[in-house]
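Message: Study each token:
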Amino acid sequence: MLDHTIAAISTSLSASGIGIVRISGDEAIAIADRLFQSHKKKQLKDQKTHTLHYGHIVDPKEDEIVDEVLVSIMRGPDTYTKEDIIEINGHGGVIVMQRILQLVLTHGATLAEPGEFTKRAFLNGRLDLSGAEAVIDIINAKTNLGLKSSMHQLKGAVYYHVEEVRREILELMAHIEASIDYPEYDIEELSDDHVMGKLERIAKGIHKMIQSSEVGKMIREGIKTAIVGKPNVGKSSLLNALLKEDRAIVTDIAGTTRDVLEEYMNLLGIPVRIMDTAGIRQTDDEVEKIGVTKSKAVVEDADLVIMMLDASQKITKEDRYILDLVVDKQVIVLLNKIDLSMEIKEDDIRALIEGVTVIPTSVVDERGLEELQKVIKDMFLLGDIAMDDGLYITNVRHKVSLERALKSVEAVKASIQMGMPEDCWSIDLKNAYGDLGEITGDHVSDDLIEEIFSQFCLGK
């Protein structure tokens, strides 16, 4: 229901320079007028939209000034929610923000649920569902690439690509319905060859979006990168060098890292979710055994494995065991400690894993790290992505809907090839149309809407 006015603190609840209490709904301005005192004795209801007003928030019951504020007035429909919005900009203390919010709630507003402001923007037609989901991606973006992708979607990139395909499906459905309702007319455009041509084009458009999801997943979540190797080869030192901070404990004692340490980093513009794992080896230490088991699980799930070897020692059984674990993964082998005498050559590794990328490194003096970053960039083709040049599906829900839609389109093609009647085609086309509508929000359940917006923070 949109018949009540909502409010929430829209900034971080912490000691900060500025804090904002946002109010949205028909009563937003009236509620603010009950609490706001302008030094010019002005009432907010008499002021123009999109203006800023200086004054104080006063507790009417106690006749006490709570905070010195600037109040923004924004009248619908030219607002984020398409409703009247008031934003009270005060000092960013925890107590003062909570006090102002409590006064707003006491004088007529209802506490907003997580994501309710954006939910209203969707329900009021300002954003489609994919655009609304892009808002949370903007908030959670970890690199400029992720931010650009989310902004591209907020501007409607997903919506326009999906709607283009839906229009083609709708046009085809209309021709089929006309053919069924008026069989006396011979609709030339509905020949099997013509329909198959349209279906091929529709399937190609959906398939292209599905293909983009692999890159999209990495843009949103980062490239899952596992650093593996036996104990004391320099894994934690590599993590620290890439992050440029002492994040992992580094000692000469084998088995120091007992658990998986995970960090996000911006590597030449590429989002990387990098994981430092426990050294993989045979051990009697029960805690270390758990760490080794976790390391193996991380390797299995990783998009990229950085396998580290101590180049100052000959290849051991443990090294060979780990190389066998990663042979079927995207892998880069680092021959670390080249500042010491080298006992392993690059060709030794290539003889074990054909075509593998091998980089001689010395983490202590950062030799080879720049080459490592360039190799990762080239390997995943992410560094030169231009968001204006194409669409990247970053949302798993969107990908699932696209896959269902493609399956329905393929079912129509199969029906035509089997000589089935036109009304059978229509059923699968309607399913495809509905699946794509789940992405934009045209065909979506209330439960799904609630689930999506529950992932948002309060005040957004």
Confidence is low (pLDDT under 50) at residues 248-259, 383-388. The chain has three domains: 6-112, 134-216+395-453, 222-380. Residues 134-216+395-453 form a domain with the Four Helix Bundle (Hemerythrin (Met), subunit A) fold (CATH 1.20.120.430).
